Amino acid sequence: MSHHIVEVKNLRHVYPDGTVALSNVSFRITHGESVAIIGANGAGKSTLLQHLNGCIAATAGEIAIGHTPLTRGTLPHIRRTVGMVFQYPDDQLFMPTVFEDVAFGPLNQGLPDDMVAERVREALEQVGAAHLSAKPPYHLSGGEKKRVAIATVLAMSPDVLVMDEPTSGLDPTARRQLITLLRRFQHTKIFTSHDLDMVLDLCPRTIVLHEGTIMADGATGDIFADDRLLEACRLEKPFVMQGCPVCGMKGK
Prior knowledge:
Layout: E1 6-14, E2 20-29, E3 34-38, H1 45-51, E4 60-65, E5 68-69, H2 75-81, E6 82-85, H3 98-108, H4 113-126, H5 142-154, E7 160-164, H6 172-184, E8 188-192, H7 196-202, E9 205-210, E10 213-219, H8 220-225, H9 227-232
Parallel strand pairs: 3-8, 3-9, 6-7, 7-8
Antiparallel strand pairs: 1-2, 1-4, 4-5, 9-10
Helix pairs in contact: 3-4, 3-5, 4-5
């Protein structure tokens, strides 16, 4: 199923003010992998994700989804394949009602109305937000907006799910629901997160970015066991791997 492969080669991005956000970033993610991209604030994580479906154009380098190069001409196809959930839900919610927001993508794919309605129903049920269908997005709580933003992407049935800080702003119950949802998503998953316990729970593979460069790419357990790497990249172990401040015992 090669259409789920994500390949990035020598990606470089320089902002107009001269800031180098990404430098020679290369990796390959295959079908069904669940991969976390972690790093301190300013490491380039969000910038990298926004390249994967063409929200930002690269200064140099190549991106391919399923062996289809990302170009201006292939952008509509890429965006049908790669579903992007932004860190801030307000960047994705702009219609008068939740139903219309979730329906927007499938309608633009040219699907008939009855199929669109079914996609919306299924997507909202998946994220536990079916009861919000008729509400205006601006009346929702932060956690509700996050769930609806995820539903807008799921309704398009993407092969690759890309999420920027998916648990940001969620309460513990909503966080657990999201982790369950992500565990059920069988296709390729790529996300950034400061929630390193979620990373340890969901992602067998982790890529570490530091100042726009990949510092490590490997098994998540090995990454979090490397104290020198974590210190150099201004990261800490997941809470479950940190010793109890009282007895010193570790969870894993």
